[in-house]
Amino acid sequence: MRRENFLxxxxxxxxxxxxxxxxxxxxRLLGDFDLAEEAMHDAFAAALEQWSRDGVPANPRAWxxxxxxxxxxxxxxxxxxxxxxxxxxxxxxDARASETAESQDDAHLxxxxxxxxxxxxxxxxxxxxxxALTLREVCGLTTEDIARAFLATAPTIAQRIVRAxxxxxxxxxxxxxxxxxxxxxxxxxxxxxxxxxxxxxxxTSSGETLTREAIRLGRLLTxxxxxxxxxxxxxxxxxxxxxxxxxxxAGGEPVSLDEQDRSLWNREWIAEGLALVERxxxxxxxxxxxxxxxxxxxxxxxxxxxxxxxAQIVGLYDVLLRIRPTPxxxxxxxxxxxxxxxxxxxLALIDAILARGELADYAPAHAARAELQRRIREL
Length: 379
Hints:
The protein is an all-alpha fold.
């Protein structure tokens, strides 16, 4: 019994550490998400049975991939007895079995994880489907976990995932990392999905599951594809999430940045974020995530709200506005100018933005205007 408990613990640990890698490779080898999922679970079940008799193999991950693939082939062969359309698939999978050793080294496995990310975030899929599929297949969250995080029902999330898989299959979306020419645009789509997940969690005090999963995705991307904007996004998320403990009062009320207890900020995450910002800003072409991370870094480096370098923040917003000229960024720049040059200057800029009508229904714009009017009255 003691040996069985030990082995069960070993398999559980392997599942937590390796299941997504195993799954990503099985998707490539089998060409189907659902078949790969079944094969992965079959492999882990077989491990519990066979390793108790034969011992844990020298390379458990490779054993799980090989076993999962052969379990899938056996499953398809059994189904092919009753469905002639599956005979060709069984023969194709059988023919691929000879590539086992080549497809299981670390380089191939990491490529498979990138393939999985880019497939789940393919622009042919609807944004809500990209998010649900990424959290399910890349992160390994259950349908119920995703539903709770997004305040949706499990059947709703399940349908999104089913439709996304059907779209991948029917549209023959390739399971591959984009070419160098395609990479910038496709990476933007992946980063947008990751940041969407993060913002969904960041907007609520109970959204820590989503923010942590987004950060985990960001870490994975920077490991596999250390592009400057991937570094910038990870830095931005770390610096923003570092303030979580200070963002709400004991009663659950939001606390503005200038009133937060900075001793509650996570200094370990801030240090990591600052180092990533420095790396991201070394790129000759600055991206929006990197500049936003640099703005967050200026706030993080200020020991008090009064010590914030607003001149530097305004300069960074000038750069960001050139990269991404949106009314919301223009509003944030106006608020920073108000801190540097006084509330009257900032109010004039916000009034000009509101006069164009672009942010007429944007509550933060009216809240910022009211705050500047209050500050002017107090002068």
